[in-house]
Write a structure and sequence with these properties.
The complex is a heterodimer of chains A (206) and B (333).
Chain A (H helix, E strand, L loop, with lengths): L1 H7 L6 E6 L6 H14 L3 E6 L3 H4 L1 H16 L8 E3 L13 E6 L5 H16 L10 H7 L11 E5 L17 E5 L7 H12 L8
Parallel strand pairs in A: 1-2, 1-5, 2-4, 3-4, 5-6
Helix pairs in contact in A: 2-4
Chain B lengths: L10 H10 L7 E5 L3 H7 L4 H21 L4 E8 L7 H20 L1 H7 L1 E6 L7 H14 L5 E9 L1 H17 L10 H7 L10 E4 L18 E4 L9 H47 L8 H41 L1
Parallel strand pairs in B: 1-2, 1-5, 2-4, 3-4, 5-6
The chains are: A alpha/beta (206), B alpha/beta (333).
Keywords (chain B): Endoplasmic reticulum, Magnesium, Membrane, Transferase
Cofactor (chain B): Mg(2+)
Membrane topology (chain B): Peripheral membrane protein
């Protein structure tokens, strides 16, 4: 029924960033959110907190996600796969085509700086000149979100009105929808945020 | 003065201002002035009128900011993406710019009196040459004023700005002024168009849209973001106060997040430097590479040399930029 919910929306984001601004993240609730995203048909999901807690405790989050997947999708298990980008664990089952990334501040500005250093190294070795670098070249040098498109939507949880360093380069056109908390979040609250997103009108500068 | 409305706050406004000023105040506020065209539609007037009213609202908002003691304001006036609009609209906006910058140059006495420093940030060569010349004159005329600062983003996108900053660092390496290992977050900060300003404390976007649209992405990573549904030409003093209150509610959490981010950044830089020093001493075959005094001395020396290179590079960059404006002024002279 989740897939039907997803199809009922006027538009569904391709990549959703789940950004937690609360100090104490909840693995169970984040896992639910990830599983709902995938069930509804969102292809790319990223999880972020500015202290890097989820990243450091990656495997705990993965375990929780697999558990939730079983519970929530249970009988329908065969239809959904979770592929964990850059993780050691591979989710079970076939089909779904959703990918997850767990990010932290080092994937933001620090990644841009790394790309800049690499480019400057090439310049020092006279393999490039400074005029070779434009927006597209720099974009292709970034590695924190390899294979992921830019986020269409950020769901921001918690009282802080800031992205707290989440992928500054990539969020240039991202819709930012705030929810009060990820703790004990319900599917209805999650879905209503997706609904809100579907109503946003993008003019692309025109 | 056309760019900053004359006038003081009303009694009620002053009363509220005093209450707000009892709490922390933003020193630098950024505005995405969105909603001019929807306002025009709503009032059944031409789009051009909407933009013109938008400018008037900017002048009024700057006055409110000054009254509240907010000394620096950055606005998103024209995005590189906006070139995609109809020729008619783009020409209209360029005409508005010509009109407003010319007016500004006629009011030099007032600018001097209020000490307003005007900066225009963006990929200026994309603009018509005469507009570039007017901008150059305005920027050079006010560059030494320092009572308040108005940064106008024109022909700007954040990704272009960041790419430009990286290109400048690469230029520095090409010129032999920098080593690739000198590239860091703080150096990139200093190569952005906004390098003379602190990061905005507060970013306000009007008209109900909840995205950043390629504006100050790097600089606002830890800023308070306030999205308000009012259309820009209808912005009021109360809307501004509301945004500042949101800033005050976020103040503690944002300070904490910013501090811990800077601390982590400093720690990582220190780690990189220590590693470099350790490796260097090992390479030189120093039997005493574990000697902490040797390590400290080499660390100090490397840091000092890097600082020197960076200062030299930043001076060259400053020179290049001043040169660009000066050359535009001599063209029109």
């Amino acid at each position: 029924r989740w897939r039907a919910d997803g199809r009922a929306l006027r538009k569904l984001p391709v990549h959703v960033g789940l950004v937690v601004t609360e100090e104490e993240p909840s693995y169970a609730d984040m896992a639910s959110l990830v599983v709902w995203c995938m069930a509804v048909g969102i292809s790319y999901v990223s999880v972020y907190d500015h202290n890097g807690i989820f990243k450091r405790n990656n495997s705990r989050l993965m375990d929780e996600i697999l558990k939730q997947q079983q519970e929530l999708i249970g009988l329908d298990c065969s239809k959904y796969t979770v592929e964990f980008a850059n993780q050691d664990k591979t989710g079970q089952v076939l089909n779904c085509q959703s990918t997850l990334k767990v990010l932290s501040p080092e994937d933001g500005k620090a990644d841009i700086v790394k790309a800049a250093q690499n480019f400057c190294q090439l310049v020092a070795q006279q393999q490039r000149t400074h005029t070779d670098l434009d927006v597209n070249v720099l974009n292709n040098l970034l590695s924190s979100t390899n294979g992921f498109p830019d986020p269409d939507l950020v769901l921001k949880f918690g009282p802080v009105d800031s992205t707290l360093g989440f992928l500054p380069w990539h969020i240039r056109l991202t819709e930012i929808i705030s929810l009060p908390s990820h703790i004990n979040i319900s599917y209805e609250e999650f879905f209503s945020a997706l609904h809100h997103y579907a109503a946003c009108e993008q003019r692309w500068g025109k | 003065m056309s760019w900053i409305r004359e006038g003081e706050l009303t009694i009620i406004e002053r009363f509220c201002a005093n209450i707000i000023k009892a709490g922390p105040m933003p020193k630098h506020v950024a505005f995405i002035m969105d909603g001019n065209r929807r306002y025009a539609q709503k009032c059944h007037v031409e789009r051009q009128q909407g933009h013109s009213q938008g400018f008037d609202k900017l002048a009024q908002t700057l006055r409110w900011c000054l009254n509240l003691g907010i000394q620096e304001v950055t606005v998103y006036a024209f995005s590189i993406e906006n070139f995609k609009r109809s020729k008619e609209e783009v020409d209209g906006l360029m005409d508005l710019a010509r009109q407003k910058f010319s007016r500004l140059l006629e009011e030099q006495e007032n600018l001097k009196k209020h000490g307003v420093c005007i900066r225009v940030l963006g990929d200026l060569p994309l603009l018509p040459l005469d507009v570039q010349e007017l901008i150059a004159q305005a920027v050079l005329a006010t560059r030494n004023y320092n009572k308040c600062f108005l940064n106008v983003c024109f022909a700007y996108t954040s990704r272009h700005e960041i790419s430009n900053a990286v290109r400048e660092m690469a230029w520095g390496v090409e010129q032999g002024l920098l080593k690739p290992s000198d590239v860091s977050e703080s150096l990139l900060d200093k190569c952005l168009y906004t390098n003379n300003s602190p990061d905005p404390d507060l970013l306000i976007r009007t008209s109900g849209e909840v995205r950043l649209s390629d504006f100050l992405l790097w600089q606002t990573s830890h800023s308070c973001l306030v999205f308000q549904s009012v259309l820009w030409p209808e912005y009021s003093f109360w809307n501004l106060c509301e945004a500042i209150l949101r800033f005050q509610m976020n103040y503690g959490a944002l300070q904490k997040a910013r501090d811990s981010y800077m601390e982590e950044r400093r720690r990582q830089q220190m780690e990189r430097d220590q590693d470099y020093v350790t490796r260097k001493l090992q390479q030189e075959g120093c039997a005493s590479h574990g000697d902490s005094r040797r390590q400290r001395n080499l660390l100090q020396k490397c840091t000092a040399m890097r600082e020197e290179r960076i200062q030299g590079f930043l001076q060259a960059l400053e020179h290049k930029r001043a040169d660009f404006f000066e050359r535009l002024c001599t063209v029109s002279a």
